[in-house]
TrEMBL record:
Forms a complex with SecD. Part of the essential Sec protein translocation apparatus which comprises SecA, SecYEG and auxiliary proteins SecDF. Other proteins may also be involved. Forms a complex with SecF. Part of the essential Sec protein translocation apparatus which comprises SecA, SecYEG and auxiliary proteins SecDF. Other proteins may also be involved. Residues 441-606, 759-946 form the Protein export membrane protein SecD/SecF C-terminal domain. This is Multifunctional fusion protein. The chain crosses the membrane at residues 7-27, 459-479, 486-503, 515-533, 554-579, 585-609, 643-661, 784-803, 810-834, 846-865, 896-914, 920-944. It comes from Elizabethkingia argenteiflava. The gene is secD.
Length: 962
């Protein structure tokens, strides 16, 4: 055959590339297994053995491998397979604007910023776009006509080289937008530098364009709290004047009265003795020393509307800050400081650190020595002159690290931070300061944490489900197609090898949904072979010899295969564009799988088959069981279409009724919230756990926030979801929620289990094994992008079918069938989410499942439409109804085989693939079942009803076609 040499060469080159890419992964696995076997499960010994083995090298002639370099090149595993943390950091763009306006207090600016904060919660626009919109709106409402180039806005000294008094607003917007983007790029570089200093293997750090967000993924990391702190620390070191206890004490006395009279409305016990709680007599530079357990209550009081209204004039701009950590002599107490604030919230000295290092005082205690830059040195000298014999607070991210009393003027720009540091804390702080400061504070708006034990279980479940699914495919296709099935299996094995090799070569991350994507691409490979072999069987039954039958089989199948691959590829591309995290991983593997399926199952398989046939050898395309299966089946589908319409209408009414009346259970990535998977050493009852937790999750006004508890897989695992304080995405609230869980679940935990063990549990301990946090802004973005993904997929498919088949009737029938499938899946998830024994949330995974079903369903529809198009050209003497029935009946063999093998694969993953995949796979099961139904009974029927009347019909002659 033509091109045989070229195709063989390409296949060999691809194979060599894949071998070269996958070798490091195999080598690393071999070394780690050997170290694990020697160490016998001892972590310390395992590391020592790994260190010994890593000194060895493997020389293969064309390449040399050693453990360290191979570890860097091995295939990346996602969090769900390896454990670790995935964070979405958002740079505070309000801080950036404040900095660019030199912390202006202009009321128009402040109101525009406040409105932009509110608008951002439900908007897909960037913060700076919302700010400009709100600034123009406030200007118009107030009739002030203040220009953005005003000296109190962006026309200040800081931007004088770019913005003049007469610079038009459009130009200022362009300049500021560019500055914001540059700041986000700067933050990206700072964060990447910090991660490099952590020594994490294969971290993934990406900018999310136009959002001020940075995606950070660190598989295998165990010290989650350290990572969160390191990445959120702005390294914006500030130096503030401190107010004395004499200035603050009268205000605290007034607050005591507020507590007694209005405590209940604030959410504080009216009988609390505030002055005793504050321990005023025990402080030096601070104004109070508070028990750790009481700090949340004091925060609630100080930030309440009543407390702010009670402030005297001298405390109008005061900022209350806590010490960074307890002092060694009082480990259960935290110091509260009163910082002398300013009208524009700007510190007297901000940043200015040129170099940081670890020092030791005369007692051997760790301290951080700093040298300021030239500008900082001048300001520091002036500040120390002004505050002789008074304390100055050194703060980092609103936490006071030290507040020493100034005994002498410091003219050389040197300063020291003390704070009872451990060696690691000191190293991290020095790394943060030397990496450079973030241009603004960063907050974690989305987080996924997976414990290593859960990751190991996911790998096991994923591998088992993959092996079972692949084995089922191989057995069935050989059983059904005989020797031709063997060639299909060979093509699929090569396909699988190529997929893993290409993924490794492009540094794609393999996730659990990614494994599902690979398995589904294997199902598509089966579909491709089924189409070819079914057409070959038809040619053989028509009396052609084996060589001619295969030639015509490949030729006539090509159009349907191209259409099916193109529409599925289109869906996968939509998933890639609109998806995030694991969904992107699913899309990447599906895209690679689809492309490799076409190459191996159509191009390479053709070379292998014809190489054998041209030598005079034969290749059977059936077995005794399958030879005449589906051959003489003819069904009057069009005549029965009214019954299918009736069934579908009733089904859709039920589904839509449930959707509008009962609604859905939305996951945290669609509504915002925190979700935790917890494991216990004994069975627990989800409803009992929920009762125990409800009273703990209350807002300031005393209302109970939602807490949902469900069994997750086994009876000793539960999933807890709550929207408690979700507007606050700070790390301190994360710890607060986890502490509430620990308190509420203590009776279910082993005796004497500590809070630290509970929140960082492993295979041997009860507690949190994974967690997810999604801020409300991110949740809105995910919802909107999910909706856009579905609309984009439907629109793309409509246009593709229109262009490919040149009839709008086909496009309408296809999209109607897809709409039908989507409604049914949504309806099933609405009807059964309260009673299903597994998670049936509407989340990103669900959207991915819907889009996958749409891709599969349109693939099925295209096969039928392709046969209808062929018969419309060739069988003009047959009535339109008979032609449609002939087309559908002749493709039943392909429809059954593809649907059956795909459902087998999905069932294998559903049963053996782990609890986190059950909802995703169930959606695929429902969707593929009804997708097959809609391709035959909805898409074809609607296309028929739209075409009839436009075609001069022939007499109703029914012929039997195989």
């Amino acid at each position: 055959m033509q091109g045989k040499g070229l195709i063989t060469t390409i296949a060999i080159i691809l194979g060599l590339i894949c071998i070269n890419e996958l070798l490091p992964t195999f080598y690393v696995n071999r070394i780690e297994k050997e170290a694990s076997a020697i160490s016998g499960g001892n972590e310390i010994r395992y590391k020592k053995e790994l260190e010994k083995l890593s000194k060895d090298t493997l020389n293969l002639g064309f390449t040399k491998l050693d453990y360290r370099s191979a570890k860097e090149k091995e295939m990346k595993l996602g969090l769900d397979l390896k454990g670790g943390i995935n964070l979405l950091l958002e740079i505070n763009q309000r801080d950036l604007i404040n900095d660019l306006t030199n912390y202006s207090s202009n009321p128009i600016l402040i109101e525009a910023l406040n409105r932009a904060d509110i608008a951002q919660k439900t908007s897909t626009k960037t913060y700076i776009e919302n700010f400009f919109i709100q600034f123009d709106a406030v200007n118009k409402e107030k009739k002030t006509d203040i220009k953005l180039s005003n000296t109190e806005i962006f026309g200040n000294q800081k931007l004088s080289d770019q913005i003049k008094f007469n610079t038009p607003d459009s130009e200022v917007k362009r300049i500021i937008s560019k500055k914001i983007e540059a700041s986000a790029s700067s933050a990206f570089e700072v964060i990447r530098t910090r991660i490099d200093k952590l020594g994490v293997t294969q971290p993934n750090v990406q900018k999310v364009p136009g959002t001020g967000r940075i995606l950070v993924e660190m598989p295998g990391i165990k010290d989650i709290d350290r990572v969160k702190k390191l990445l959120q620390t702005s390294a914006r070191l500030q130096f503030w004047e401190v107010q004395s206890i004499e200035e603050i004490a009268p205000y605290f006395q007034r607050l005591s009265s507020v507590v007694m009279s209005k405590g209940d409305s604030i959410g504080i016990n009216r009988n609390m003795n505030l002055m005793s709680t504050l321990n005023l007599q025990q402080v030096m530079s601070g104004v109070a020393k508070v028990k750790l357990s009481d700090t949340a209550t004091v925060n609630k009081l100080l930030n309440s509307v009543q407390a702010i209204k009670t402030r005297p004039a001298n405390l109008r701009f005061t900022k209350f800050m806590w010490g960074a950590k307890p002092e060694s002599e009082a480990p259960d107490y935290l110091t509260l400081y009163a910082i002398r604030g300013t009208v524009n919230n700007k510190a007297p000295l901000d940043g200015a650190v040129k170099e940081a290092r670890i020092n030791y005082d005369q007692f051997g205690r760790i301290e951080i020595g700093m040298q300021m830059d030239s500008e900082g040195t001048k300001i520091w000298k002036s500040l120390t002159e002004k505050n002789m014999e008074r304390p100055i607070a050194v703060t980092l991210d609103e936490n006071v690290y030290t507040a020493p009393r100034v005994n002498a003027v410091i003219a050389n720009g040197s300063s020291v931070i003390t704070g009872n540091f451990s060696q690691q804390e000191a190293n991290d702080l020095v790394d943060v300061l030397n990496s450079g400061k973030l241009p603004a504070t960063a907050k974690i708006v989305q987080a996924d944490v997976v414990g290593p034990s859960l990751g190991a279980e996911s790998i096991h479940a994923g591998v088992i489900s993959f092996i079972i699914a692949f084995a089922l495919i191989m057995v069935y296709i050989i059983f059904y197609y005989g020797m031709a099935g063997v060639y299909a299996v060979i093509a699929m094995v090569i396909n699988l090898f190529y997929v893993f090799g290409i993924m490794d070569s492009i540094d794609a991350t393999l996730t659990l949904p990614g494994i599902a994507g690979i398995v589904l691409s294997m199902a598509m490979a089966v579909d491709t072979n089924v189409i070819i072999y079914e057409r070959t069987k038809e040619e053989l039954f028509a009396g052609k010899n084996i060589l001619e039958a295969y030639k015509d089989g490949f030729k006539h199948a090509l159009s349907a295969i191209i259409d099916g691959h193109a529409t599925t590829l289109l869906t996968a591309l939509v998933l890639y564009v609109f998806g995030t995290g694991p969904i992107k991983g699913f899309a990447v593997t599906l895209i690679i799988g689809i492309l490799m399926t076409f190459f191996t199952s159509v191009v390479l398989s053709r070379v292998m088959i014809f190489s054998r046939l041209t030598k005079g050898k034969t290749i059977s395309v059936w077995t005794k069981f399958s030879k005449n299966l589906f051959r003489n089946i003819w069904i009057d589908f069009i005549g029965k279409r009214k019954w299918s319409y009736l069934f579908s209408v009733v089904l859709m009414v039920i589904c839509l009724g449930s959707i509008f009346v009962k609604g859905f259970k939305f996951g945290v990535d669609f509504k915002g919230g925190r979700s935790y998977v917890l494991r216990f050493d004994k069975p627990v009852v989800a409803s009992d756990v929920q009762k125990d937790l409800l009273s703990l999750f209350k807002t300031q006004d005393g209302k109970e926030e939602s807490v949902d508890v469900k069994t997750f897989g086994n009876s000793n695992q539960i999933r807890i979801t709550t929207d408690y304080k979700i507007e606050d995405v700070s790390t301190s609230v994360d710890v607060e929620v986890e502490r509430k869980l620990y308190t509420g679940l203590k009776k279910y935990l082993p005796e004497n289990e500590t809070f630290e063990v509970f929140r960082n549990s492993d295979a041997e301990h009860a507690g949190i094994v994974s967690s997810t946090k999604v801020g409300p802004t991110v949740a809105d973005d995910i919802k909107i992008h999910g909706s856009l993904a579905v609309l984009a997929a439907l629109s793309g498919i409509f246009i593709y079918i229109l262009v490919r088949f040149r009839r709008w009737q086909f496009s309408l029938g296809a999209v109607a069938a897809l709409f039908h499938d989507a409604v049914v899946i949504l309806g099933v998830f609405s009807l059964f989410y309260t009673i299903a024994p597994f998670n049936m949330e509407i989340n990103q995974d669900f959207i991915a499942a819907v889009l996958t079903v749409l891709g599969y369903s349109i693939n099925d529809t295209v096969i039928v439409f392709d046969r209808i198009r062929e018969y419309l050209r060739e069988r003009k003497s047959i009535s339109l109804a008979g032609l449609f029935d002939d087309s559908i009946s002749s493709t039943l063999g392909r429809t059954f085989n593809t649907s059956f093998t795909t459902i087998l694969v999905i069932l294998a993953i559903f049963i053996f693939g782990g609890d986190s995949m059950k909802g995703f796979m169930f959606a695929l099961l429902i969707g593929i079942g009804f997708g097959t139904y809609s391709s035959i009974f909805i898409a074809s029927a609607i296309a028929y009803d739209c075409i009839k009347g436009r075609r001069k019909d022939a007499p109703p002659v029914h012929e039997l076609h195989t």
